[in-house]
Amino acid sequence: MTMESAYLAPYKSAALVIGLQIETVTWAYGEGLKVAAVSMVGFQIGAGDIRKAKHIKKLILAQTFAFALVISTLIFTFNQYLVQAYTDNLQIKQVFNDYALALVCLLSADLVLSVLFGLFKALGKQIDLLLPSLVCCYFIGLPVGNFLCFQV
């Protein structure tokens, strides 16, 4: 992030930092759900109660998607107020508003992917996420990140 910030105007760097702070909060929630998925689903599978493990898995996924939907709605609805909590600079507000959709996509994908990793780990099938992770990170994530970083 530091290297990319050198290429951006100061107000664009400030908008990036605000977005990263918001992303960090939602990422922490996803990590908590991932730990819950690993421990709760894994415990039920270990105890031989597959039915209860499937039920817990469905609850965790439903909570994940509900949280992603709520966060996305809040960011779209209140994005100008989110930035105002950090600064009154109009340029920063405009840049943040312009890239609210990208932030929402990142937040939702991060949250769901984190929980999926936890569920697959609980099932002992981490290898099944190897190819999708490589494709998402290297063939989608890097080009999109490069575009957003240098075309802002």
What does this protein structure show overall?
By secondary structure, this protein is an all-alpha fold. It has one domain (2-125). The protein has six helices and no strands. α2 crosses α4. The protein is elongated and about 60 Å long.
Q: Features of this protein?
A:
0% strand, 152 residues, mainly alpha, 6 helices
Draw up the topology in text:
Blueprint (H helix, E strand, L loop, with lengths): L1 H4 L4 H37 L3 H35 L5 H9 L1 H24 L6 H22 L1
Helix pairs in contact: 2-3, 2-4, 2-5, 3-4, 3-5
Give the uncertain stretches in residue-range form. Answer: none
pLDDT averaged residue by residue:
80
Share of residues in strands? under 5%
Integer count of domains: 1
Tell me roughly what share of residues is in helical segments: over 70%
Short description:
By secondary structure, this protein is mostly helical. It has six helices and no strands.
